[in-house]
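User: What would this chain look like folded?
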Amino acid sequence: MRLLDERIWSLFKRHWQQTVTYWSVFFSFGLCIAFLGPTILDLSCQTQSTLQKITWVFFSQQFFLLVGSSMGGLCKKTLLSSLSALFSCTLIISLVFAIIPLCHHVVLLSVAMALAGQAMGVIDTVANLQLVKLYQKESAIFLQALHFFIGLGALVSPLVADPFLAEDNCGLGANWTANSSSSSDLEHLRNSLAGHGTVLHNISHYPLHTEGVNITRVSYAFWIMALINLPVPVAVFALMYHERLFPCFRKSPRLLDRDSLSSSAGDSGREHGSVFGCCNPAKLRGRPATFFILHALGGAIVFITDGIIGSYAGFIYTYAISPPLVMGHKTAGCLDSIFWASITAGRLSFIYLSYRYTAPMLLTFSLVGVILVQCLLLIFYTSCVFLFIGTCVLGLCISSVFPSMLAFTEDILDYKGCATTVLVTSASTGEMILQLLVGSVIHSQGSYAFLLCCTITSSIGFCLFLLLLYVQRIHRNCHTDSSKNTDMKEKAQTGGS
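Assistant: Here's the prediction, encoded as structure tokens.
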């Protein structure tokens, strides 16, 4: 056990600068993903647009995050192209933070958030891909830490924004009436918009007066976040300089040439090729059907679990203020923060658990825990106290599914790289699409359908995981048989010659 500790610590010390840089870019990702909900009403005043128009900014960010996740897979699997992409994207995020206060029209704001979303998607794919490439069989621990930094960034940005949010109507006009939005109305709207996405019909009936002079101070929050994020592209640039990736160092041997990534992870002599090398038609002819099924099952599982995270974060407030719970706005508004805090704490704890237990064990524990918690939430649906407890436990259980599934799937498929792109893109798609589906069901069937939808989808996810384990066994047997046949042919050829 102690030798394993020393080996993992030795791996980290050998690649600490690359690892910390990838962690920092995920902090940048978290900063960008969580600020929009709390600040959306102030941005509505800034752009003097209705809530129906301003919420399309959510869609713009989510859609281009999905586009960016797919684009990230197109980067060649070289350190230069990967770090160049990360440097550009983290710099774009700082620039977007800086220019958001200058966007006085909703179209300009949507374009800015589209750029940020695309940068976030590229970061999501490239950072996961490079960390898996760097550590391979030991990547589970470092992936858990990587995704912890998303939660850390997501906790920081609302804290930065909070002191600068308008406490009352942020549009100062001459035609104020008694119907103007009160402080409690604005708090209620912010909590309704606090998830990663919002279905338009949830807020269409709330009036918001934005005419007149804009008196919001939220610009300072965005400029502070731009400064907080600025060291991240600097860190990526420093890593590029350290690895001698600039033209002036091309003649000298790069550091990674002397210390290959494959051998550092205990898997020497393996060539990876391009990111989609495993999806090259010429290389797919000899692949068994299980190879494709494993990609599809892994993508489907994270599609569901990330969709549950997005749906729960987006609609738990709506569920809490509706009958039979009818919580107060302030109390219900704490649920989203508790959920994200428990996800962050869960990812921190799973860093250690990933070292002690295998990915299949962690995934089984997490997925069963998610189902049990949601079943209990359905049973005790009238208990406000249990809703807080269940929200906390659910965040702890579901927090590690994506990094564990990524490490497990790449390990099954022998670290070809394609699985990372498939899983990241599937997770982004699930987070966007399941929110829309759950929101539509809540609108037509009532708030109780929210928990029912999450329970059904999590049960489907666990069934898919059991199928994944079964297909993995078949895939391993096929791989073993093909290896034996290859060895026998080589021996026969050697004996014949």
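The chain has 21 helices and two strands. If you want, I can go into more detail on any region.
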